[in-house]
Design goal:
Helices cover about 50% and strands about 20% of the residues. The protein is built from 14 helices and 14 strands. It has a five-stranded antiparallel β-sheet.
Length: about 525
């Protein structure tokens, strides 16, 4: 049969074994020390009892008088036996100065010389205790001299307790200790088993190896995620921070180790501690950290309904914005393609109808006009706007505006070289797309033209979008760039907010002018670096 190692045993068994070993070792060592102490105390108590009896007999007037007179009447023996029965000692022997017994439990021994060889000191007037073998076996013996009124020694008293009786008393004391140890060990085993079950329940029935595996997996997930994560316990102390969070904190100028600090001390302006107190989630919130804008989600941590802390996940808004701008650019491209496709399909339907009516001359004129118009638009836009991405957006918005019965005009003074920075182009796509969409929507009822002017000068791009639509009231103009504010309905209100924010991030200027009933004009100026091989 293969013997299991301790590491192979389950948690309850290991806890039970560990606690039992600790209890047994503790009880054995404590029991041994107590046993030694009790044994010595018992022996001392027996010695004291023997000494007290011998002193009491030695001080008796009867004993002194009889020894002085030579014990003519033999009164010492009855007295000594009576004292032996009362005190429970093994023997009370009275000796004269010649070591002759005047009393003894065995009457035949009376008149004989004392046996043991340890009586010497008592005849020198000294009390002492010794252990020796006598006529009744090995015994513990207390010697006390008998002194008369003239301070003369007239004999000695020996009180003895058999060593077997001493051992019985000591063993009786030790049995009590042993019984207590057995009860303690049994209670320890039961307590260890119950504690093991409780610990196992707290750990959801998992073994330490499983917990370690889950911890390693969780740690790997936390450290590999692209979002920063910070968690606090119910005392609002930071308990966990992943690598991405530390990177963002260092980027914001925080170099201290956050774990173990109070969240209010490390991040004074965070609301994570408020989530612990309120238990309410806060999603998609902006948080500024020394100039670094973060998008934060804060949620409480509940275990079986009890609040145990809170966790926040966050990401650099610049990175989020970059992805959003890429998505916005893709959406804008898709809308432009859809508008052109829709316009192309309409023209194909016109051509098909004219072919069906056999109006070939009108068809020839229509195709010529359409071709000239398309070539003119493409030629004008591509000539003035050298950046193909921006030119494509403008051309697509022209088609989209024309589809809505609106003319989008690119000013003849417009000119723009290819951008040196692709990221800047993506940001300009977001700005231009949102401004033109707003202008088309504003003029959709009036069918008035929209004017667009873009030109590069002295390291900057200036852009003006003017529409002659419904315009805005003074109240609407004040709130126009607020996130979520819109006159178009719910789930809107992001266009001008994104434009203003993007312009600010580029280090540019944004101006908005509008009058109710007279349209809106937006001026944008941002730094622009052209590519070296273009003008």
């Amino acid at each position: 049969m293969k013997i299991k190692r301790i590491d192979d045993l389950n948690l309850i068994t290991r806890i039970t074994i560990l606690v039992c070993v600790v209890i047994i070792v503790s009880l054995l060592s404590t029991g041994f020390l107590i046993s030694q102490f009790i044994e010595q105390r018992t022996i001392n108590s027996i010695e004291e009892r023997a000494k007290n009896v011998s002193q009491m007999v030695a001080l008796s007037e009867l004993t002194v008088a009889q020894l002085e007179a030579g014990n003519p009447e033999g009164e010492i023996q009855p007295y000594a036996e009576r004292m032996r029965d009362i005190t429970g000692v093994a023997f009370v022997v009275v000796l004269d100065m010649d070591s002759v017994r005047q009393s003894h439990p065995i009457e035949e021994m009376i008149g004989q010389t004392f046996v043991g060889g340890d009586e010497g000191p008592v005849f020198e007037g000294l009390e002492h205790i010794s252990t020796a073998e006598g006529t009744m076996g090995y015994s513990l013996r207390s010697f006390t001299p008998v002194i008369n009124d003239q301070e003369e020694q007239v004999g000695a008293v020996v009180v003895g307790i058999l060593l077997d009786d001493v051992k019985k008393e000591v063993w009786g004391s030790q049995m009590i200790i042993l019984f207590g140890m057995v009860i303690g060990i049994i209670a320890g085993v039961i307590g260890a088993y119950l504690m093991g079950r409780k610990v196992k329940k707290i750990m959801f029935g998992l073994e330490p190896a499983q917990i370690a595996k889950i911890f390693e997996e969780r740690n790997a997930i936390l450290q590999s995620t692209k979002e920063g994560i910070i968690a606090i316990d119910k005392n609002e102390t930071i308990s966990l921070v992943n690598y991405e969070a530390i990177r963002l904190f260092k980027k914001a100028g925080y170099s201290d180790e956050p774990v173990g600090q109070l969240i209010q001390n490390y991040l004074p302006d965070t609301r994570l501690h408020e989530v612990v107190r309120s238990g309410k989630r806060e999603l998609d919130q902006e948080f500024e950290l020394n100039g670094l804008i973060l998008v934060v989600n804060r949620v409480p941590i509940l275990v079986e309904g009890d609040m145990v802390g809170a966790v926040a996940t966050f990401r650099d808004k610049t990175e989020v914005k970059k992805m959003a701008e890429e998505l916005t650019g893709v959406r804008t491209y898709a809308e432009a393609l859809r508008a052109q496709t829709h316009e192309f399909m309409n023209k194909l339907h016109v051509i098909l109808g004219m072919v069906s009516l056999e109006s070939y001359e009108e068809l020839r004129q229509y195709v010529k006009k359409t071709t000239r118009q398309s070539q003119s638009e493409v030629g004008n836009v591509s000539t003035m706007i050298k950046d193909p991405v921006l030119a494509g957006i403008i051309f697509g918005k022209m088609s989209y505006a024309r589809e809505n019965g609106i003319k989008l005009q690119l000013a003849d003074t417009s000119h723009l070289p290819v951008s040196h920075n692709v990221d800047t182009t993506h940001q300009l796509v977001s700005i231009l797309g949102n401004l033109l969409d707003n202008a088309i929507h504003a003029t959709s009822t009036k069918k008035k033209p929209i004017e667009l002017e873009m030109y590069y000068e002295d390291g900057a791009l200036e852009m003006i979008v003017t529409d002659y639509g419904i315009g805005m009231t003074k109240e609407q103009l004040i709130r126009a760039t607020e996130k979520g504010f819109s006159t178009k309905g719910k789930q809107r209100g992001m266009g001008l907010y994104l434009v203003k924010r993007t312009v600010k991030e580029l280090g540019g200027k944004f101006k908005l002018h509008s009058e109710w009933g007279n349209g809106t004009s937006v001026y944008v100026k941002v730094p622009y670096q052209p590519r070296g091989d273009t003008e």
